[in-house]
């Protein structure tokens, strides 16, 4: 297909699905068509991204579109530069089609906390109670699901790429932390934020990932070349073993027993079992693994992420960054010169931030500020950091391959009572698993109307299966598989369920290999 025809088809889909509210801003048709014609005029074939339309989540800076983070406080912000991931897309020949809708500053699980309105799920959206599109990268997922673009970028802090992928029937990939640059990404939680990729196929996901996976000296969290070489050496060693993607019939698939709570939807549980059966039919072996800190991981996340957010969002005060509230700067003040200045500043900031931030952002700022306060820091923030370390140790224990970031640890050495990666209790190698397979979300997409009636904190439980991998920076991908529960009305309304594949740090290619094998098996079953 020519680039011009591809662009015209995407634009037609964007017009047809305008009511889903996937985009905050879109490029002009004339610009996109001219860019596509320019690509078609070049006789020499380009790379896989050449001439392809890619959408970008609106918390990633672009020089030619506003960057609002779906917040009133940034409604007039225009970046003077492209984020590194956007620049690399352009250098690969991709055409940026626009900026997608999201939960404000990436804080939410359903893409409902946006100044520009909620994103709607394209599946069953005409129903009396339309379902959630997931969040916070809901706009990016919907744009891909409805073919308004070839692929899209999102950000994943605790599942914000994988959850909307599960709800919309798309591929949602969160790479290992530090592989993709965060330069130019509006920070929510620095130690968790990861640029992710949404696409309709695993092969498309690979193409975008290959274009973006490079060290960026502008990003202090970007993995340096030395660490990338260590990861490459580790994965090369793995590829030469019997557990590699080159011999996929010998993979050891881990089944996390703590990812099977009583609250798990029957449709999800049935489909999980069917997915494991598919993998077993491909020749993989299934092994139960224990990750007992999983329930505590969610609580730790909602202490750590808001704490970082309260610090990152402090700069949006109407003076340094952000839209300033109208009206006088102050209304009275305490006696004395020092008190007067403090009161004026407090009123100015309070008015601007009160009008500029939505309810969920305010909730998390307050929660984070409390977690960092003198009286609560030891009981909450430091305890959450300990839980995070424990989660990392548990993951390292169950994987066959060691964590390349902790390669200085000797074989069999204990950390807090846990054995190091790939080791059994008696120190023998080869008892770990290659990847974990579990649901992406504990249930099917809830109706948007019901979300308004729920306690906002209840939405946090949607992240219970995605947060653990985010806490320790592991690669994870959500793959849509057929809903095996055809006997219920839910099965008819949602023909797919998101299944998550998690790998050891740096095993991104292996995670995508398993995702592609599962994808191909599903296609073959339908043929």
UniProtKB/TrEMBL annotation:
Residues forming the catalytic site: 57, 136, 160
GO cellular component, one term: mitochondrion
Disordered: annotated span: 117-140, 214-252, 410-430
Ranges annotated as spanning the membrane: none
Protein localization: Mitochondrion
Protein name: Glutamyl-tRNA(Gln) amidotransferase subunit A, mitochondrial
Its job: Allows the formation of correctly charged Gln-tRNA(Gln) through the transamidation of misacylated Glu-tRNA(Gln) in the mitochondria. The reaction takes place in the presence of glutamine and ATP through an activated gamma-phospho-Glu-tRNA(Gln).
EC number: 6.3.5.7
Residue stretches of biased makeup (Low complexity): 226-252
Assembly and oligomerization: Subunit of the heterotrimeric GatCAB amidotransferase (AdT) complex, composed of A, B and C subunits.
Keywords: ATP-binding, Ligase, Mitochondrion, Nucleotide-binding, Protein biosynthesis
Catalytic activity: L-glutamyl-tRNA(Gln) + L-glutamine + ATP + H2O = L-glutaminyl-tRNA(Gln) + L-glutamate + ADP + phosphate + H(+)
Pfam families recorded: Amidase (PF01425)
Domain annotation Amidase: ranges: 7-512
Family to which this protein belongs: Belongs to the amidase family. GatA subfamily.
Chief location: mitochondrion
SUPFAM superfamilies: Amidase signature (AS) enzymes (SSF75304)
Protein origin, superkingdom: Eukaryota
Alphabetized InterPro entries for the sequence: Amidase, Amidase_CS, Amidase_dom, AS_sf, GatA
GO-annotated molecular function: ATP binding; glutaminyl-tRNA synthase (glutamine-hydrolyzing) activity
Top-level taxonomy: Eukaryota, Fungi, Dikarya, Ascomycota, Pezizomycotina
GO annotation (BP), single: mitochondrial translation
Gene3D superfamilies found in the cross-reference section: Amidase signature (AS) domain
